[in-house]
Amino acid sequence: MAKKGLVYLFEGGGKGKTSAALGVAVRALMNNWKVVWVAFIKEESWNVSEKKLRDKFENLEMYFVGKGFYISNQGSGIRDQDKKKLKIVRVNGGVVVDKASEDEHKRAAKDGLKLVEEKLVSGNYQLVVLDEVVNAISEGLLIENEVLEVLSLRGKAHVVLTGRGASEKLEAVADLVTECRKVKHPYDLGVTAVKGLDY
Q: What does pTM read for this prediction?
């Protein structure tokens, strides 16, 4: 029986998870692998530099299926009937805005997982990246067992997962687990994200 592809997990509260996944993806692309990238939180309208990779590599597909930052309605003072209203949280002197309802976030995450399943089942890709899928699980947008079921369909394709809040169960399934731990961060001093370094 053919050996299954490897599962890499870049997790933790520090910066570098998506950057590590991008490094793996570029390495795969340079070896002429077919790569598919599915971002579970970032949305297509975000001006992230990695989107430009689509113009550079014919062997890359990138999908930004998220609805942006997810801010739970719990404890935010927003009633169920008002979930469409903006949810705002102040972080490190900046403002994070969540324009989507919880249902819209969940639907987008489920659509993203369905897309990953289709790509894995096709057998046409050597690498499939699920960027911030761990966030989607830990924030309740996806059910972990459903994600694990999709991962079991990978065949020979290698898979990279990123995000915060990975469970022991998810770590056990992964062949490689790297924790990005914050020691210090420019955000703590009020320095906002730098295009080219952070996005």
A: 0.86
